[in-house]
Amino acid sequence: MNSVLPNRAWTFISLLIAMVFLTLQNNSSAAQFLPNWPWLVMMFWVLTTPHKVNIGSAFIVGLLCDSLLAQPIGLFALLFSLSAYFMTTLSAHYKGLPIIQQSLYIGLFYGLFQLCLDVFSYASKPENSLELNLWPVGLVFVFWGAVQYSLERLSRPAPIE
Question: CA 95, CA 23: separation in Å to the nearest integer?
């Protein structure tokens, strides 16, 4: 399966699928409980291939999320860029950890991302009440292993036959 597409194509396709999930979940009633899929996929690629998917890529994906969700331009871009920066600086330490600790780190960073997103969204639209939506943090902790496993399967080089 991997012999058909190069790794960069898998990166692009996985981010595109995450954007579709984000758009679909935004139109559902369970949106407040589901994590930001592009953030999860972007952080996976930043951690595994920081030389290919970097802060600039995170900024562009953040701008796409801003436009998809009709948020103030730059809100997701800023948060994605900051997340990518911190993940890049911690990537060497992170790779040696067991999956449970990796999930804990990702959950913690996602919690900070969600907290900043909620506060900045409130600051840009003060007519809304400030609601801290931290439900997805637990789901990120649970889902991270599955996300990492499935994306690692895509990022492996094709076997030589």
Answer: 31
